[in-house]
Every structure is written in structure tokens, then in C-alpha cells.
């Protein structure tokens, strides 16, 4: 199960391997802020509360854009964060602004 939370929405859906968190949000018609899909704008920044081990490691774009402390605490960029294994994942959209 993949749980996506925003300020206005909270949905649960079946995760698909190979898709990013942003892909899942867009596919489910969740209002998830983003601009670039390349990992440079950080508008899709999110907090992974559960299931970090089921996602790919942080990309180079994430390491360039997010602070090491943010990554260590579970913050990711939804456009770069790919589901590699199905399981329970809980993600909250946490943009800077």
C-alpha cells in the first residue's frame, strides 16, 4: 500500500515498481506540486515516513538539491524517488513554500 498525503488529500493506492512517487500522485490525480521532473526545482519535496527501504537510493539530483540532514531524516524529491519493491510506503508532500 502507498499512502500519499498533501494538505488537502490523503489517499491509499497500490504501488507500482518502476514509477516515482510523483508518477503515482499524477496517475491518481493528486494535487502534488512540481515544476521540472528533473530534481532541480524541489517543489515536489516530500517526507517518507514509512517504507524508505522500498524506494531507490537518493539520486545525484537529490544529493545536489537537498541538504544531507534532510536526506538523513527521510526527505526526498518525489520526481526522483522510485518504488523498487512493493510494500507499505507513506509519503507526505512537504514543499519548502
Task: Provide structural commentary.
There is one protein chain. Helix content is 19%, strand content 23%. The protein has 3 helices and 5 strands; from the N terminus they run E-E-H-E-H-H-E-E. It has helices spanning 21-27, 60-65, 68-72, and strands at 2-5, 10-13, 45-50, 75-77, 89-93.
Brief account:
The chain has helices at 21-27, 60-65, 68-72, and strands spanning 2-5, 10-13, 45-50, 75-77, 89-93.
List descriptors.
97 residues; 5-stranded mixed beta sheet; alpha+beta; 3 helices
Residue share in β-strands: 15-25%
Output mean pLDDT. Answer: 97
Q: Helix and strand succession?
A: EEHEHHEE
The global form is globular
Head-to-tail CA distance between termini: 28 Å
Structural class: alpha+beta
Furnish the topology, listing elements before pairings.
Blueprint: E1 2-5, E2 10-13, H1 21-27, E3 45-50, H2 60-65, H3 68-72, E4 75-77, E5 89-93
Parallel strand pairs: 1-5
Antiparallel strand pairs: 1-2, 3-4, 3-5
